[in-house]
Amino acid sequence: MFKIGIIGAGEIAQNHESEIAKLDDCKITAVCDIREDAAKAIAEKHGARVFTDYRDLLKTDVDIVYILTPPFLHKEMTIAAAEAGKHIFVEKPLALSYEDCVEIKAAVDKAGVKCQVGYIVGYNPAGDTARRLFKENKIGDLVVIWDKRMHSANILNSSLGTHKDWLTDKNKSGGHLLECMTHEVQWMLSIGGEVESVYANIQSANPNPNITADDNCWAILKFKNGGIGVLGTSWSCPINSMEKGILGTAGVIEISGRKVKMAKNDDEVQEVETVADTNMSKQAHFNKCIRENLKPFNSIDEAVYNIKVIIAMHKSSLNNEVVKL
């Protein structure tokens, strides 16, 4: 029976807590948040101990820690957890800089603990199905991957003055691209592989001077296999929408909502049944990886590379240049 400690009792913690509660091979025994009432709200459901300092939680006998805090706290907490010998599930992004990610990976490797980052690749039926069809060579070699995700500005505006106001601060969240669209980058990398170069334009369209986080990004990725990736994102669009697709030399795969459609050249469009890579939740899968000594989906190696690519996008936008990786 794994003993689990949760660090950070905000909204995302509610999702993790509900999934952990469904499992019979683990139990939440400790919860930490600087807001004691937030920690108590989760802890009381499980008879868990309450902490307001994560370092005190790490002194307990928990086997796994879930680091569900804002991104600017990830480096310090993840390294401390590794040094304490705890297996670690840390929410995305791993950290705010590539250098910080490298330090985290070094600490995790030295400690010999498992670490999984909270991406959805491997657990998303539509995205996983599209990637799997491509990997099975259903549409030939890669020509282009596109991924457009548009959100309302209310995400930032409604966070001001709340416990989520870290989201509006670039120095705490990393901005829209790093904090949120890291999910989309992870999906694109899982298909295109290593990146040769990037060109990006990252902007802030929100007129509120108290919001420093970027909220729009358009980027082109050139993969080493010759394919192209096109990423478009916004936190200032009045209409929410998501579009993804993969064009190959022999056909196309398109994702619309939860549906996947595929058409080979000169063939009719067919809707494809969607199935995730695993029928387990992130939490159940991580437990299995620890128990059976397996490499988890969205491992720390993949998370470090993800941030390397995103930081290259920021550099490209800042200097208005193509950045080679």
Keywords:
325 residues; alpha/beta; Rossmann fold; Dihydrodipicolinate Reductase, domain 2; 2 domains; 9-stranded mixed beta sheet; 6-stranded parallel beta sheet; 15 strands; 36% helix; globular
If you had to describe this structure to a student in words, what would you say it looks like?
The protein has 325 residues and is α/β, with parallel strands linked by helices. It has 2 domains: 2-117, NAD(P)-binding Rossmann-like Domain (Rossmann fold); 125-276 and 299-324, Dihydrodipicolinate Reductase, domain 2. It contains 12 helices and 15 strands. The strands form 2 sheets. A 9-stranded mixed β-sheet has the order 14-13-12-11-7-10-9-8-15. The relative contact order is 0.16.
Shape: globular
Helix content: 25-40%
Strand order of the largest sheet: 14-13-12-11-7-10-9-8-15
Q: DSSP strand (E) fraction? A: 25-35%
CATH topology of the largest domain: Dihydrodipicolinate Reductase, domain 2
Number of domains: 2
Question: What value does the Rg take, in angstroms?
Answer: 20 Å
How many helix segments? 12
Mean pLDDT: 94
In CATH terms, what is the architecture of the largest domain?
Answer: 2-Layer Sandwich
Largest sheet: 9 strands, mixed
Tell me the layout of helices and strands.
Elements: E1 2-7, H1 11-20, E2 26-32, H2 36-46, E3 49-51, H3 54-58, E4 64-67, H4 74-83, E5 87-90, H5 98-111, E6 115-117, H6 125-135, E7 142-150, H7 154-157, H8 170-173, H9 175-179, H10 182-192, E8 195-203, E9 216-223, E10 228-234, E11 241-248, E12 251-256, E13 259-264, E14 270-272, H11 282-292, H12 300-319, E15 323-324
Parallel strand pairs: 1-2, 1-4, 2-3, 4-5, 5-6, 7-10
Antiparallel strand pairs: 7-11, 8-9, 8-15, 9-10, 11-12, 12-13, 13-14
